[in-house]
Amino acid sequence: MINQAIAQLSHFWVVLNIGGIGRTIFRSVRCVAFMVFLAILGAKCHAQSTTVNGLVRDSSGAAIARAHVFLRSGAFEVHTSTNEEGRFSFFNIPLRPGSVEVTADGFVTSQHSWEKGQPPSRLEFTLQLAAQKEQVVVSAARTEVALSDTPGSTILLSHLDLTATPALRVDDVLRQVPGFSLFRQSGSRTANASAQGVSLRGLGGSAASRAVVLADGIPLVDPFGGWVYWARVPRVALSSVEVLRGGESNLYGSSALGGIVQLLTRQPEAPALSLEASYGNERTPALSVWTGRRVRKWDYSLASELFHTDGFVIVPDSVRGSIDTAANAEDATVYARVGHTLGSRGNIFVRGNFYTEFRNNGTPIQTNDTRIGEGAAGMDKQISDADSFTMRIYGDVESYNQRFSAIAIDRNSETLTDLQHVPEQVVGGAAQWTHVLGKSQTLIGGLPNRGRNGGGRQRTLGIFGEDIFHHANWTFMLAARVDDWRNFSGSLVTFPISAPPIATLYPTRTDLALSPRLSILRSINQHLSFTASMYRAFRAPTLNELYRTFRVGNVLTSNNAFLNPERLTGAEAGLNITAWQRKLDFRGTFFWSDIVNPVANVTLASTPNLIMRTKQNLGRTRSRGIEMDTVLRPANNVQIAGGYSYTAATVISYPGNPGGINFVGLEPGSCSASPGASLAGDLMMTKTSCL
Predict the structure, then answer these.
(1) How far apart are the C-alpha atoms of 532 and 23, rounded to whole Å?
(2) Residue 152 above 70 pLDDT?
(3) What pTM, to 2 d.p., does this model score?
(4) N or C terminus of the chain: which is more exposed, having fewer CB within 10 Å?
(5) Residues spanned by the domain of 39
């Protein structure tokens, strides 16, 4: 069209020139020709793009605000959200085949496509309410399994559950899971790091966790002490949390005596920002923020969490002395992740995390601080319809410092007794292959490995296999794992104030653990199923228990480099009930577990000025109890949840000090209840505990 116009104008100039009109007419005609050319070119360019407007409503005709709208036109992609009237607009859209997709929480995704180059200028979408979705977990079998098909006691806290919980830290969120507790009752905002070990089903007893804590499949438990720095993962960065109660060393190795806690972080699908801030007494501000976006095949996310408190004096007024100061604390974390999609069936990612904290523990001398830097990378790839591959590699560098003192009886003076510096390094990785055999069987195999260095070295090599088999109304899960670990280069170097250093070297030790598990699920009908499991699990002693001596006040606890692993044998049985089109879910479980060689602190001598203790393997303990969890969803935006657990922990044998307290038969039963209700994202929750 443009070429034809130019040709016609050129011809017109020739005619006029032949007629003798002259140079003036030539210039005028040339100017007109140029302006006409620009007008035609502008019309042509304008015709190559267009504007798309739209409206999003529900089935009743009400506008849906903040719905996500994705437009694709050829290689061009753009995203927006609907306004309060449910409207959206896109400008300068190229004329290519494409589609518009609309998503909103609680509704079925809707899409409109066009094959020719001209997209419709106006679109209207009517979204239908989504039916109750089948919830899926990954921790129970290291692959995606429907929550109703897991033959064990499994809890899933969704993103809605997390945002509706008025808790400021991840460990506070987990307290709504019956049976979950830390070594001490205090939360991670105020408790010393060494008091943040995880206990499930009453299997605690020391600072080291009796449960494995993971963040996106990567260990979060401190490699030296076995406790958890919960603030390393900002709370608003979480998408969901899975809690699997019961021995799981068959898949996760050491420390999975009580179960698994898996933190899963958010993966951005569209530009988003979440921010929570609070302020409390004793000058206690807190901030948690997450942001992320996706650009074609790349996704980016960044999160941070900051906390500070001036604290308060923890000693009662009646015995308080001049050295007693406020126990204050502050911490900060930064988390960043970059991901890339591999075609339509895979992805890779790298992430980094830095965490720092400082605590004043109530006197000028007694302080501790920690710095942790982490780097990790991973890949999830669907190789074919039947095969998939997963890989994780990670490394941690940590510095832990703590000072201890001896306090005078009148609490008016203190003396430095111990200044500890623990450098730690961790390198680990895991690879997993999954193969689907037909429609009824899945095979999983993996090679998780880990090396730690901190006061000594610990190398762990593991290999596991799992077979998930479905037949008629039966589901069988058979898994086993072999772990080989080696403790070597163990040492304790003491620097007395007025004497040369004293070095204690410990011998190399190796051990082997076999952890099998058999789980069965029998579906009676679509509403009722029964489960049963038998398993063995273990926990290897931590480097802290093997090589570190510490002092709290006038209590001195020495290390024991000759500790043996804790070994658990357990069984459980339960039932699952669903009703009213999955609006009601109930899970009940009875469990029994015995631990041989539990590690505990034993008092060796006691005087008014000094109490001496050491860590030892002691006899056998037994935990029995029941767990019940219920979720009721009477409407799409209403959820009522409740849980109850009762645990009877009994000391079966205790070869302690002759003439000391006999704990055999001691039965410190415990129970906890966590009822709660959520309405349109708001949660009201209470929790009671009894001992």
Answers:
(1) 101
(2) yes
(3) 0.78
(4) C
(5) 2-46
